[in-house]
């Protein structure tokens, strides 16, 4: 994730004790001017295919940093 968003602040929280369900808040200047859908697509691309594999469920919040 840091390779794709070097300035990112990432907070991750487990939502269950199964190592599959997480909540993530990602804050980055790279999200400026992007729609929420585009921001989420950027994060999923940075996860390089881990969604649906290593990660079963991710509640994602993105924030554009000034």
From TrEMBL:
Name of the protein in question: BolA family transcriptional regulator
Species: Rhizomicrobium electricum
The organism's place on the tree of life at top rank: Bacteria
InterPro entries: BolA, BolA-like_sf, BolA/IbaG_stress_morph_reg
Organism placement in taxonomy: Bacteria, Pseudomonadati, Pseudomonadota, Alphaproteobacteria, Micropepsales
Gene3D superfamilies referenced in this protein's UniProt entry, alphabetically: BolA-like
SUPFAM superfamilies: BolA-like
Family recorded in the similarity comment: Belongs to the BolA/IbaG family.
């Amino acid at each position: 994730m840091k390779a794709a968003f070097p300035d990112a602040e990432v907070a991750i929280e487990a939502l269950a004790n199964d190592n599959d369900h997480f909540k993530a808040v990602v804050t980055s200047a790279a999200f400026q001017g992007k729609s929420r859908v585009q921001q989420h697509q950027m994060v999923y691309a940075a996860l390089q295919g881990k969604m649906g594999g290593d990660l079963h469920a991710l509640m994602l919040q993105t924030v554009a940093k000034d």
